[in-house]
Amino acid sequence: MxxxxxxxxxxxxxxxxxxxxxxxxxxxxxxxxxxxxxxxxRLVLAKAVSHCVRLTDRLDILLVNSPREPTSVLxxxxxxxxHSGIDYRLTSTEGDLGGQILSYLNRFQGITLVLVxxxxxxxxxxxxxxxxxxxxxxxxxxxxxxxxERTAPLTPIGNTDA
Length: 162
Fold this sequence. Notes:
The structure is a single chain. Helices cover about 40% and strands about 15% of the residues. By secondary structure, the protein is of the alpha/beta class. The chain has one domain (about 30-140): Rossmann fold. The longest helix is centred in the C-terminal third of the chain and has 16 residues, at about 120-135. It is globular, with a radius of gyration of 19 Å. The N and C termini lie far apart (about 70 Å).
């Protein structure tokens, strides 16, 4: 199965290391999947599994603001991880996603990659801390396509309708 996965190229692209190839074993990274339970998406979780299969055999999952009732989407994620041979630790907590990620990274050393639905809300929430974490070598990878920021509609200058 690993011969069909281009893990070396992914690791090289994410971490800027050269000399990695799929013909030789590549280093596995410790990954944190940070999820906001208020907006679990089947597409995002499928992308998370795809990344994890290529990059790690050990996944930390941080579920912030978990849904009141267990969802089939989360159940499928855990089942897929088990079938893919990925060991995981699921931690559930309440609060601000950005703040909880910072707390988790402080408690558990060795994580180098953080998978999130979108980076933009985190940058607004913990922007300065993210800059410091990136300088220390942490990588934040968005799983959702990045959408451009919405702006107010343009109004013509000198509108004479008033």
